[in-house]
Amino acid sequence: MSATSTFDQAIALARTERAAVHHAELDASWGFGPRIHGGLLMALAGHALSLDLREESGHADPISLSAYFLSAAQSGKAVVSTQVLRRGRSHTSAMASLAQDGQERMRILATFGNLDDQPSAAPVQVFTAPPRMPSPEKCVGTEAAPPELLKEAPLLERLDLRLDPQCVGWALGAPSGQSWMQGWLRFPDDREPDPLMLLLAVDCLPPVSLDLGVSGWAPTLELTAHIRARPAPGWLRLKHSTVLVGGGYMEEDAEIWDSEGRLVAQSRQLARVGRA
Amino acid sequence: MSATSTFDQAIALARTERAAVHHAELDASWGFGPRIHGGLLMALAGHALSLDLREESGHADPISLSAYFLSAAQSGKAVVSTQVLRRGRSHTSAMASLAQDGQERMRILATFGNLDDQPSAAPVQVFTAPPRMPSPEKCVGTEAAPPELLKEAPLLERLDLRLDPQCVGWALGAPSGQSWMQGWLRFPDDREPDPLMLLLAVDCLPPVSLDLGVSGWAPTLELTAHIRARPAPGWLRLKHSTVLVGGGYMEEDAEIWDSEGRLVAQSRQLARVGRA
Q: Inter-chain contact B125–A85, Cβ cutoff 8 Å?
């Protein structure tokens, strides 16, 4: 992990005089719509939890992390605090909070453990498959995005995100009506994936509601990520899907696959859609 | 809602001298394996949140609720406390904790709102379908369960749960290898479904790992439920599925459909499986 990658800069933390309280700086270049991207906030809080729980119990890897988004984060200073709820042999459960100027932006519950400490004899049964799509070179990069979108979502320049050409109808004014979206992701500076990147990656694709013809951002109320394995170096494959858009809400499920074809993360979020 | 139904008795709360702190009594008859059933704990904490947030802001319905299970709840006294994190126009976000003798059993983050206050103009798009299965009369009730299971899981007598005959191979020593399970659910005393019952219902089917040949209980680390609509009276249809059992963990997704064929709740949990 390069200490100078833009992602590692974005999730950098400075210790304070108080244990389990960290200072961070949210950079405007990680903005998405009117706020700092929620995935970046999860990675930042995940980083604070990883540092504190490694010291506490050696449990440095997120296994499950649930984030509730309370108010829109802006660029500028932020404070991340953590609190252990329960220490166990295999897991430590904890809470984290991200605040700016005393306003809480995000509250997190999480269980941390050690991804290398999984019973090798445990069964593996997989009932899904990696997304099938053209190679990254044949997919649609963010350089093809409309300039007004890039202006609203500078985050897109922090990511090398390539959408399956089947999933870009919405951007051309012709939503496909598909309930799923997929693409490739890596960092432009080749910073390799790790569990903290996965916390960002679960929320990097455009909302599937766009390709269903429901316009507008889809602000996340809640997102829970499960990290299932440490990802191999290389491109990640992302797939999002929904089974129900209704009543002003959408559930959106994500799968993240690594370059060795393993399902390394899953997430589900509830977002607001189709409201004024 | 009948005040004397066994479910309403089980989630009854007594006010204490402190605001937002409630007393409850966990009855052994809601036991499942070595602990009080997690779904009942979620319904109980959801009840406390509903009472407190109704007073606070009129937001009495769970929209999203994430529960982290910290230690096994036993029968006996419990204390449920709640704390508002953010009041908004449409939603109130809050935290809840359930403890026994000073030991925390479960911590919850949740967003509450009003299920009747959804924009009628909002689009509804559904990409899944209710479970197809024989009528409740032709499904397999818990009276068919082995007596040793009923002894270990008295909860089953609190529920009128009827499994699709396709999903009972595990109980006969011949797991089907299917990655899903489905059935019907109502309360034996005809107490009708509401959002609090849905918080119980998302964790009422046997773990799908059993029908995959992975024996043993599947203790939940984390479960997030999204309540999508107020359920109609009558039977609920439940479907659980997994896409990945591996590394000692299983993700399990639930859909709950009401008697009018609407998807009223979704959940995802991470459980431990196949460990000693």
A: no
